[in-house]
Amino acid sequence: NLPTLSSSCLFNYLSCNNHLIGPRLERIKSMFYHAYNSYLDNAFPYDELRPLTCDGQDTWGSFSLTLIDALDTLLVLGNHSEFQRVASILQDTVDLDIDVNASVFETNIRVVGGLLSAHLLAGRAGMKLEPGWPCSGPLLRMAEEAARKLIPAFQTPTGMPYGTVNLLHGVSPTETPVTCTAGVGTFILEFATLSRLTGDPTFEDVARRALRALWKTRSDIGLVGNHIDVLSKKWVAQDAGIGAGVDSYFEYLVKGAILLQDEELLNMFHAYDRAIQNYTRFDDWYLWVQMHKGTVSMPIFQSLEAFWPGLQSLLGNLDSAVRTFQNYYSVWRQFGGLPEFYSIPQGYTVDKREGYPLRPELIESAMYLYRATGDHTYLQLGLDALESIEKISRTPCGYASVKDLRDHQLDNRMESFFLAETIKYLYLLFDPTHFLHGGGLEGDGSWEEGGEGGQCVLGAGGFIFNTEAHPLDPAALYCCSRHTQERQELRDVLLNLSQPREKADSRSKPANERAEESAQSQSESIALKPGEKKTPPALSCPVQPFSARLSVLGQVFSDNS
Ligand code: DMJ
């Protein structure tokens, strides 16, 4: 029983309640280890722990999903040795060459996202880094391998992916072409990160193609529906809203715009947002409407929608975010958790949707809003969540999904997002100086790697969380893209040096022919085509400055040469 927060400290939590932070963080850590140790003891190598029967089951694949999803949470909680141990277990045990039908969406956000963020945090976790990190490394190669397994799903006439792919055989000939909107538009964060770290544009290209195809299918009033046929581009479910089936599509437009400094994505989001505000918002609730007519089809709030205030706060729409958060928080208070569906006119749960599977979204929004406002309302939500989860969900073997918030019946399931997201966001909510908040307040977010001449200053631009709460570092993307570009420039220089005769010959050609040739050789060397194999770099020493690399070959150039 910890003391409650002082209400006189409304905007000054840190100075008034500093003494409370430590015990809260310790309590969240002990929740994590209760579930994590139980997973390792009773469920590994299965995907998930079954917290009522104390055993394991495969759910989304067969890749020890909870361990992959929880890996970066270990680092967030400061457990470097366990992070290192698990990273190496995963490298030794996870086999993706398996005859399993996996969700393209879930495999991306949980497996590819989890491995990418663990790769990017490996330096801070004290792992031995291979030369070239963060542009190469074993966890990055695993993420790349997992993502390659998903690529066949994108080979459709529209570029929009199928929902399921067999990890060994590709898309089944009997696979349904109907995919949810989020299943089409939730790839750009992981896939652009992969492309920019590895230098292979394939991933970013397919994610962008899918996004552009989806964008073109919006209705005349600017809305998208819930499920689409990826072959015919026909909308199969025409409910437009911000929750299940759509949610992370909007999230990735905003976060993609921030991570990649990409105006196209931001413009898409703003256009959608205008339609969303116009047609779906009522009293700071967001309803479901028919995508062509804008008429209300379901006046319900879904727990998945609770990410929205956090997203709005990232865009600076604080007033609206705060009001919507209050609506959602009132539902949490009514039930001690968020039911999957809540009927707004009736003020009550919806039949068969009374459960709370330990989702993170409201806590996630609380974290962003606390970061933006310092208002301790958000910490109070954190305390409520902590108490509810302990009281309702804790079992001797972990934490169980709540089947029904009215009578606290439990389900024998602990989804991997409980350790990846719910616990992580709770912890970060109560630790406002954590480096993942991006160097704000007292924390120093930046961290250098590369040794002498190293040029990757990581973490300095904050972190972007994928939709499974896996943090991605924009600075690493920038750094590796720059190295790729420099490598290509170097390759061009070396090619020119090794072909002096041809060059001399070409000098005798007319100016227009020379220009054409040069443009051609540039586009050949810089732009790799989708599917094209990356040729090994002339020198794999990406943390050294450009001039230093030339001197390695015995050719010394000054910086301005
Ligand atoms: C997670 O897998 C992700 O947050 C996803 O975007 C939505 N569903 C769960 C959490 O609720």
Helices, strands, pairings?
Elements lengths: L12 H30 L5 E3 L4 E3 L7 H12 L3 H14 L7 E3 H18 L16 H13 L13 E3 L11 E3 H5 L2 H11 L3 H15 L10 E3 L5 E3 L1 E2 L6 H14 L2 H17 L1 E2 L2 E2 L1 E3 L5 E3 L1 E3 L5 H8 L2 H18 L5 E3 L4 E2 L11 H13 L3 H17 E2 L2 E2 L2 E3 L4 E2 L6 H14 L16 E3 L6 E3 L5 E2 L5 E2 L1 H25 L1 H8 L3 H16 L19 H7 L9
Antiparallel strand pairs: 1-2, 3-4, 5-6, 6-7, 8-11, 9-10, 11-12, 13-14, 14-15, 16-17, 18-19, 20-21, 22-23
Helix pairs in contact: 1-15, 2-3, 2-4, 2-15, 4-5, 4-7, 5-7, 7-8, 7-16, 9-10, 11-12, 11-13, 12-13, 13-14, 13-15, 16-18
Pfam families: Glyco_hydro_47 (PF01532)
Protein name: alpha-1,2-Mannosidase
Enzyme class: hydrolase
Task: Looking at this protein, list some descriptive labels.
561 residues; mainly alpha; three-stranded antiparallel beta sheet; 19 helices; 49% helix; 11% strand
Proportion of residues in extended strands = 5-15%
Terminal CA distance: 67 Å
- How many whole angstroms does the radius of gyration measure? 25 Å
Give the biggest beta sheet.
Answer: 3 strands, antiparallel
How many E-type strands? 23
The quaternary organization reads as: single chain
Name the average pLDDT.
87
List the uncertain runs.
Answer: 440-444, 506-561
Query: Compounds present?
Result: 1-deoxymannojirimycin
Structural class: mainly alpha
Number of helices: 19
| Estimated helix fraction | 40-55%
The spatial strand order of the largest sheet comes to 5-6-7
Instruction: Categorize the overall geometry.
Output: globular
